[in-house]
Amino acid sequence: MKDASPQTIHLADYTPFGWTVRDVHLTVKLSPRATRVVARIHFAPRGDAPAQDFFLHGEELTLLRAAIDGAEVTPEITPQGLTCPVPDGPFLWESEVEIAPADNTALEGLYMSNGMYCTQCEAEGFRKITYYPDRPDVMATFTVRIEGDEPVKLSNGNPADSGAGWAEWHDPWPKPAYLFALVAGDLRNHPGSFTTKSGKEVELNIWVRPGDEGKCAFGMEALKKSMTWDEEVYGREYDLDIFNVVAVDDFNMGAMENKGLNIFNSSCVLASPETSTDANFERIEAIIAHEYFHNWTGNRITCRDWFQLCLKEGLTVYRDSQFTSDMRSAEVKRISDVIALRARQFPEDQGPLAHPVRPESFQEINNFYTATVYEKGAEVIGMLKRLVGDEEYYKALDLYFERHDGDAATIEDWIRVFEDATGRDLSQFKRWYSQAGTPRLSVSEDFSEGTYTLTFRQTTPPTPGQPDKAPQVLPIAVGLLNPNGHEVVPTTVLEMTEAEQSFTFEGLSAKPVPSILRGFSAPVVLERDSAPEERAFLLAHDTDAFNRWESSRDLARDCLVAMVTEGAAPDTAWLDGLERVIRDDTLDPAFRALMMGGPTQSETAQVLHERGHVPDPDAIWDAHESLRQAMAERWQDLLPALAEEARVTEAYRPDAAQSGKRALGSAVLALQTRLDGGKAAEAQFASADNMTLQLSALACLVQAGRDEAALRAFHDQWQDDRLVMDKWFALQIAATTPDKAPERTAALTEHPAFDWTNPNRFRSVLGALAMHHTGFHAKDGRGYKLLADWLIKLDAKNPQTTARMCSAFQTWKRYDADRQALMKAQLERIAARPGLSPDTGEMVSRLLS
Ligand code: 0A1
Ligand code: ZN
Predict the structure, then answer these.
(1) Which helix (H) or strand (E) covers residue 453, if one does?
(2) Ligand 2 center from residue 63 Cα (angstroms)
(3) pTM of the prediction?
(4) What does the DSSP 8-state code read for residue 466?
(5) Whole-angstrom Cα distance, residue 194 to residue 596?
(6) Per residue in 108-141, pLDDT tens?
(7) Closest residue CA from atom 7 of ligand 1
(8) CB-ligand 1 contact for 256 (6 Å cutoff)
């Protein structure tokens, strides 16, 4: 058990460890409840570190033996680790501990999933395997010997030797302990190979449970594409003889970039057309790439301490989004990323959990694997690239790899590389890393005698611990159109550095229409009271696809706000403009599908809140329903033609072209269902030969309340496929009406297949409830109570997943007094639980503060 009183750790307190580790030799003798780990570690004092006691982290370990230079020692043991007197010079540390992977339900350290041994060491899991300086700035080479009867035994690096009942691995690249991994079990591999650009042969494997072999081909192709892309775009080659990927069913996150041995949540790597949707395929491709790209941005160059997490995560998310843009449609990817940023990061940045991209303090680092660190961290890289330009960006990245290869680096190092490579002063830009909150950007315009002036003002609302904010550097990409809809000034990046700043454009013959924040060039809330006519004009004419989409989204937001607050009717002028875009078959179907999508209900709640209203979830539900109904009725005659256009006749491929068509088809089907009560959806459900079509049809049937037979048929067809069953659980909550959502969730938690200790299954049920805006916010609080009941139950087994899911409550202060009181009561009930984990304790106390 961890100490009950949580410790706050501060960035400002960083001190280096007093010793370097030359090498680590581990022998792991596997046994479900009595695994022995023997460690032999060479330490040498480092002269440049402040004097300190010799301390090794270690949690939930039974120490059997410890020795220094061969002589037995008796260290002093606490729940966090051990201290021991050590010689002044270099020495060999030996220890043997016992651990029980079969009892490890937290899924951190060495644990078991379906009879297979696996590890998760980021951020601080290695200390549950052996005593060690478990901090990312301690880097060492590892040799690992695994003993056990399991047919497959894997660790990091290259295979060194093996025999009956043992295998040895050697990783020549010094690495921090969080990148350690070990896997053993009865696994099957899907093999592949790759030749790097300098001619090195690399063996590739995807390891899965027997039965899953048929779901690996796509992941393997994605891996090869990622390897090629990183060579071509960043000049980065792979550096071992072998690259292994393993799929595990029980995993707290998506995947993990352990050196040479990536471990994946099976939902993020296994795919087949029958069982995976187009969205699953796209996500798998991105996550394979993300973990692979970490080999350079994360592993070869790692983080000095966990405050620097965005150094590897922001950059790697940015790189994987570049990869997806290159593999698919850059415009569609950018719009999807912004939708996700607004859905996940904006609420975080505007509520009690707000923190800087580089936090300055934490209690439990696992609580900081957030949308802010990852997605806002990636936006910061994107802004940097826009400010310095592509050429300088890649020059800076070359310097980063050259200067810091093998280092545990900081954001200061990263910024200095850019300053040295480009000659720019980035001290103000650096505020993006230290200042939390989403800046608000307002704009006014003036036109006289051919000169057009845009004046911007930026302010950032206070966030926890940061009442006052300084102006940030905002790259504002702007283009100007003339009244005929022609672009007269192509995209130009205005570099805003002041709280208020004007930019002028000369020589214009008429007052132009500005297209501001093209490509969403900075993660801000743009406040602009432009006339609806101007937005409609941009919807029709903007050359920037993002802003074309955004102008429609703005009109949709205004329309929904008016519907909710004034009982207005849907805005027909907007729907006419939107219809012209949707009809335009020269446009990418994926883009048109995004145009048809419209804001989610939580986005409408967010917008209402930003505009000073208290969002009423039931009124939001009604407004969204009548808007969708109005769209369906208006476009009655258009829908069949669109459905025809969206039909795919060739064999299934999860590529951008086909999935774009299917996305359009599913947007159309959702509207058609409102007119035909589910007839078309039933037909599609019956004939579907891939999961994308099957699931979108099922969603429509659930939405229409005509789902009993279809849900049963789907269950019977897929009951043996756990990943598909996750979809079955989630969908019937996600697509149902608010009145049914909490009851359905409660009923599904009684289902025999509801294995709540599996994080995927838990999230597919309770996460689906949390994401059902009106269902979760049921007026009587039963949604809140149900979620809190389950969070309390899960916390005793799996603190990490519980703590992450507490963020469902992060917007609680946005709602009316009654709902606030109900949510607060549930948070207080969780907080008061005896034995609550430090992870969940920290989250709940931040939420309540
Ligand atoms: N570094 C991984 C994400 C990850 C983080 C923490 C984990 O356990 C607490 C597991 C995975 C990535 O960015 O993909
Ligand atoms: Zn990552």
Answers:
(1) strand 451-459
(2) 33
(3) 0.99
(4) B
(5) 41
(6) 999 999 999 999 999 999 999 999 999 999 999 9
(7) 122
(8) yes
